[in-house]
Amino acid sequence: MSEERTHDELNRCAAAYSAVVAERQAALASMHDDSGWDVDLGAGTLTLGELTVQIAVLGSYAQVDNTWLWGWANESLGVDLGSPIFDPGRWLRRQAPTYGIWELDEPEFELTEVRDVGLGPAGTVAIAAVGLLGAQAMYVTNRPGGKLYLAVLDQQVPAPVATKDTFAQRLMTGTKLYPGHDRLAVQTYANVHRLQVANADHAQLITFGDSSQLEVQYAEDGTISTFADLDADRGR
Questions:
Q1: How far is CA 49 from CA 9, 32, 35, 177, 231, in A?
Q2: What does the CA dihedral 127, 188, 7, 218 come to, rounded to 10 degrees?
Q3: Averaged pLDDT, 93-105
Q4: CB 18 within 8 A of CB 119
Q5: Is the pLDDT of residue 164 over 70?
Q6: Three-state SS for 151?
Q7: The pTM is what?
Q8: Which of 14, 54, 79, 104 could be stapled to 154 by a disulfide with Cβ–Cβ 3.0 to 4.6 Å?
Q9: Three-state SS across 39-95?
Q10: Where are the beta strands (DSSP E) in the chain?
């Protein structure tokens, strides 16, 4: 009997990148107004108001059967499947064994048991994909019967800077979306921003580029209990 496949690693990956992707979404939102949008899949661009950025297709969500279909397997988009717009998705596919996420290599799969944190379960797939790709953000458009998920891959969108003043806010935003993985979210956020992390049983000490320090303290159940500003405690 074959072992039943679960979405545990996919959900865990989205939880890990939750704070990272949340701040990147905010960075993209700060660059445009609500005057309209347009997607040109042939050109690989997304236009938001006066801003035009390069994109890749991640995949699409079909409401009728609650499934995700990767862009590189979707023949209904009117774009040759050999197009570079699908290259990031194909890269993710090759990384499936490395990350232990079977869904990256599965052309289409049901989203039952994929976490829905208010963005729909397809949003969890997209958050994981954007995090693994190191994309600047994601964008979601409506299409007949579902949604299309895009990755923004354009250096015009500024990379957020992690500071002691914003660290706690961003981590609380991410961990509220995906509770139960607080330490993993902190570690991933710190790794992405190349911050030093010292681990203890119930705490993580974060050292920023200016040598300032913040201690993330955890309750017995693993949730974040406190962010302690060690420099304030030392009178710095």
A1: 37, 6, 5, 29, 42
A2: -120
A3: 97
A4: no
A5: yes
A6: strand
A7: 0.93
A8: 54
A9: EECCCCEEEECCEEEEEEEEEEEECCCCEEEEHHHCCCCCCCCCCHHHHHHHHHHHC
A10: 37-40, 45-48, 51-62, 67-70, 108-110, 137-143, 146-152, 196-200, 203-207, 213-218, 224-229
Size of the chain, expressed as the number of residues it contains: 236
Closest to 213 measured CA to CA, from 201, 221, 203, 224: 203
In sign, the C-alpha dihedral spanning 48, 52, 53, 56 is positive
CA atoms of 156 and 198, how far apart (whole Å): 33
The answer to whether the CB of 29 falls within 8 A of the CB of 49 is no
The tokens describing 159, both together, are 């990379």
Q: Identify the pLDDT of residue 235.
A: 55
Q: Are 218 and 202 in contact (CB under 8 A)?
A: yes
Q: Cβ distance 16 to 185 under 8 Å?
A: yes
Domain ranges of the chain: 8-152, 164-233
187-225 per-position pLDDT tens digit: 999 999 999 999 999 999 999 989 999 999 999 999 999
